[in-house]
């Protein structure tokens, strides 16, 4: 049994709810398709949205707990003084990529709102879907910053067991 503390964070709850929604929507669609030879029109549009939401929320949780896939060989063979430099460089690279994602995602969401674009499947406003992109990118930025602070202070979560 694991001794790790549970991860009760908003992103974890959001990821869980998104996964539950995907499962329920897909199951409902399969049952209706089997029973009636027709399917719900909204399932693909909502499933894709929830899958993207699940991905970003899961990335935020992983970023907070230092569980992202990365090359650890360099980290394991550096002296502690250089290790902190690597941590800051990793953080900086993440902040640049996520900052660009957040910036252009916000511009895109604003344009979708201003243009009153509608989704092709259900005709819902596209900005409802797109607005989550900068919000979740900002959440990941916050979590990688928290992780950097912990790593610089020497406080780290238990190592993740990599099974291969």
UniProtKB/TrEMBL annotation:
Any GO molecular function: transmembrane transporter activity
Record's subcellular location: Cell inner membrane
GO biological process: C4-dicarboxylate transport
Topology relative to the membrane: Multi-pass membrane protein
Entry's transmembrane regions: 12-34, 46-64, 85-107, 127-145
Cellular component GO terms held in the UniProt record: plasma membrane
Domain Tripartite ATP-independent periplasmic transporters DctQ component: 22-153
Record's keyword terms, sorted: Cell inner membrane, Cell membrane, Membrane, Transmembrane, Transmembrane helix, Transport
Superkingdom of origin: Bacteria
PANTHER family: 2,3-DIKETO-L-GULONATE TRAP TRANSPORTER SMALL PERMEASE PROTEIN YIAM, TRAP TRANSPORTER SMALL PERMEASE PROTEIN
Similarity comment text for this entry: Belongs to the TRAP transporter small permease family.
Assembly: The complex comprises the extracytoplasmic solute receptor protein and the two transmembrane proteins.
Summary of the function given for this chain in its UniProt record: Part of the tripartite ATP-independent periplasmic (TRAP) transport system.
Protein name in UniProt: TRAP transporter small permease protein
């Amino acid at each position: 049994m694991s001794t790790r503390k549970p991860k009760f964070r908003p992103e974890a709850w959001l990821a869980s709810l998104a996964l539950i929604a995907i499962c329920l929507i897909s199951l409902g669609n399969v049952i209706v398709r089997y029973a009636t030879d027709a399917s719900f029109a909204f399932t693909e549009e909502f499933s894709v949205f929830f899958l993207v939401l699940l991905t970003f929320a899961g990335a935020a949780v992983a970023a907070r707990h230092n569980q992202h896939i990365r090359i650890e060989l360099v980290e394991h063979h550096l002296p502690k003084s250089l290790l902190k430099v690597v941590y800051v460089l990793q953080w900086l690279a993440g902040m640049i990529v996520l900052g660009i994602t957040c910036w252009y995602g916000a511009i895109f969401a604003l344009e979708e709102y201003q243009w009153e674009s509608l989704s092709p499947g259900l005709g819902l406003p596209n900005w409802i879907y797109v607005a989550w992109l900068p919000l979740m990118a900002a959440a990941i930025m916050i979590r990688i910053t928290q992780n950097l602070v912990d790593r610089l202070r020497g406080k780290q979560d238990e190592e993740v067991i990599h099974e291969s």
